[in-house]
């Protein structure tokens, strides 16, 4: 079992309750939002641990609605583990979810987040909301790590590169107008992924590396 196996049942649970759910948003495993309500953050691990608790406490700087989630099995040991986890989460103001994958997927809410007053970071909360709204669809799977994570920035870079390959002039001003990506110039100039090269001042092309990586890209990452 991997962490990514926990994502689907959690996503399904919150979607059934009217939330839009996306994963790997600004280092948060799962983010669920309903309308203008405060975002719900869910952090997942295969075991209830100090690492999971610290992640939850850190996410409380962004939202007061933070859940911890881990899979549960049958047996007295796991029953006691869940009871202890509930006590700790209630004391810390964290919500707790457990996931059962077999024989059928099932998510259980043991306690709701809240009660404890936490001073949120407005800046981090804004950054999270901005990234959530900018990412097209839900291209990631909660629990995955590394450069494979599709961010809004990466999606913008892909759109720019594809436009240039299609024949669009590689000028920032042209790309801003045609694609609506306001930071086109910064993406081209910083060239974080090594996809672009400067032909002359203010004009860019797509590198061989860029063409190769775009050709091997799963287009499902760009849509829901």
Describe the model.
With 224 residues, the protein is α/β, with parallel strands linked by helices. It folds into two domains: 131 residues, Trna Endonuclease, Chain: A, domain 1, CATH 3.40.1350; 71 residues, Arc Repressor Mutant, subunit A (Orthogonal Bundle). A hairpin with a 6-residue loop joins strand 2 and strand 3. The mean pLDDT is 91.
Summarize the structure.
With 224 residues, this protein is an alpha/beta fold. Helix content is 40%, strand content 20%. The protein folds into 2 domains: 131 residues, Trna Endonuclease, Chain: A, domain 1 (3-Layer(aba) Sandwich), CATH 3.40.1350; 71 residues, Arc Repressor Mutant, subunit A (Orthogonal Bundle).
What keyword list fits this structure?
8 strands, 2 domains, alpha/beta, 6-stranded mixed sheet, elongated, 224 residues, 20% strand, Trna Endonuclease, Chain: A, domain 1, two-stranded antiparallel sheet, 8 helices, Arc Repressor Mutant, subunit A
Element layout with pairings:
Elements: H1 4-16, E1 20-25, E2 28-33, E3 40-44, H2 50-59, E4 66-71, H3 76-92, E5 95-100, E6 106-111, H4 122-134, H5 152-165, H6 172-179, H7 184-190, E7 196-200, E8 203-206, H8 208-215
Parallel strand pairs: 3-4, 4-5
Antiparallel strand pairs: 1-2, 2-3, 5-6, 7-8
Helix pairs in contact: 6-7
């Amino acid at each position: 079992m991997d962490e990514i196996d926990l994502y689907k049942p959690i996503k399904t649970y919150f979607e059934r309750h009217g939330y839009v759910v996306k994963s790997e948003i600004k280092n948060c495993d799962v983010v669920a939002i309903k309308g203008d309500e405060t975002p719900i953050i869910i952090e997942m691990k295969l075991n209830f641990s100090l690492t999971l608790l610290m992640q939850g406490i850190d996410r409380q700087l962004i939202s007061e609605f933070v859940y911890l989630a881990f899979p549960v099995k049958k047996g007295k040991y796991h029953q006691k583990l869940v009871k202890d986890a509930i006590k700790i989460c209630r004391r810390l103001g964290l919500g707790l979810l457990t996931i059962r994958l077999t024989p059928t997927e099932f998510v259980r809410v043991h306690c709701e987040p809240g009660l404890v007053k936490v001073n949120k970071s407005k800046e981090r909360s804004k950054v999270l909301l901005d990234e959530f709204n900018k990412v097209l669809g839900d291209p990631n799977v909660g629990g995955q790590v590394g450069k494979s994570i599709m961010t809004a920035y990466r999606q913008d870079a892909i759109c720019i590169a594809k436009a240039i390959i299609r024949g669009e002039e590689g000028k920032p001003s042209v790309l801003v107008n045609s694609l609506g990506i306001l930071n086109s110039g910064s993406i081209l100039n910083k060239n974080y992924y090594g996809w672009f090269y400067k032909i002359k001042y203010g004009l860019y092309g797509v590198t061989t590396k860029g063409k190769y990586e775009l050709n091997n890209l799963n287009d499902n990452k760009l849509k829901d």
